[in-house]
Every structure is written in C-alpha cells, then in structure tokens.
Amino acid sequence: MSEEPVFTRSEWGTNRYVYNHRNPVGLALIIIAPIVAVGAMTGLRNSSRWSEAELRTAVHQGTENLTGSTQYVSPDMHLGTLIRDAVEDSGTGPGLGLDVSRDAVGDAIGDAGHGYTISSADTETEYCIRVTMTRVDPNSRFTSIRQDHYLTATATQGAC
User: Fold this and answer.
1) How many alpha carbons fall within 13 Å on the CB side of residue 12?
2) How high is the pLDDT of residue 1?
3) Helices and strands in the chain, H and E counts
4) Coil, strand, or helix at residue 43?
5) Cα(117)–Cα(102) distance, rounded to whole angstroms?
6) Cα(42)–Cα(34) distance, rounded to whole angstroms?
7) Which of 56, 125, 129, 143 has its CA 20 to 30 A from that of 137?
8) What number of other Cβ atoms are within 10 A of residue 79's Cβ?
9) Cα(152)–Cα(66) distance, rounded to whole angstroms?
10) Which long-range contacts (CB under 8 A, 24 or more apart) does 6-14 make?
11) Where are the beta strands (DSSP E) in the chain?
C-alpha cells in the first residue's frame, strides 16, 4: 500500500483537496470520475428526449385514458392542456416537451370533434387526437355554460 494519501491539498494556491495521482486509489478516481460523469450526463440527456416509439405509445395510452372520462368542460373550450396532461401522464416517455396545437379546420366540423396535433421537437412523427364531447345530461336546459361531458378520443398518425 502506498504511503501517499488519497487526497492532498491543491498546489494551485487554493485551500481545496484534490485526488492524489501518486496514490493508486487517487489515480483510479482521477480516471473513473470523468467516465462516470460523462455516462450520467449521456443517460440524463437520453431520458429527457422522446423517441418515436415512446411518443406513439404515450399518445395511444393518453387517448385511451381520455375516452370514457367525464370532464367539466364546454364544447367551445380549448382542450389542449387536458390532452397534453393525458399524454404526459401515460407513464411513457420523459413526460415533458410536447407540443399540442388545435386544428382550426376541425373546429368548423362540429360533430367530428376538435382535432389537436401532438408533436415533439425530438421526433418527426405527428399525431392527431380528435375529441368529441357528449353532455352527461342531454336534457339540461343550460347549453352554453360549462357542464359535465363524456369524452371520446381517437388518435391517428399525421397532423390534423
């Protein structure tokens, strides 16, 4: 075993401790520490990006979660946040970095539902989620205010 300590005071005018290259353990730490740091940074970067498969799975799982749910919304409401939350909460992918945009053409269709294009800067594929709403109480005389609606969502590949 070497008599040299693993850590020594820096000779660069600071009062910090540094790895001692004269000790085998200190030398090993000098070599291993940057490798571990680069590996951790690479893993962190990869886990914060959407892959094509993750986005596809998250969109379809989010669509399943929306279908059959009851939401307190109005037919003219922008549902982008609701859709983003459903896709991000699917448990697939990094959970952040989605772009959700409402399809202006789909708004005029009425019965076909509102279309929302889902995309990510990390992928090239876009998905269209169409949401239709059915009032929970169709006999309600209040039609212009928010009320509970059953949602039905469908997902297709490609922009809306």
Assistant:
1) 4
2) 56
3) 4, 7
4) helix
5) 6
6) 12
7) 129
8) 21
9) 7
10) none
11) 7-9, 17-19, 70-73, 98-102, 114-120, 127-135, 147-157
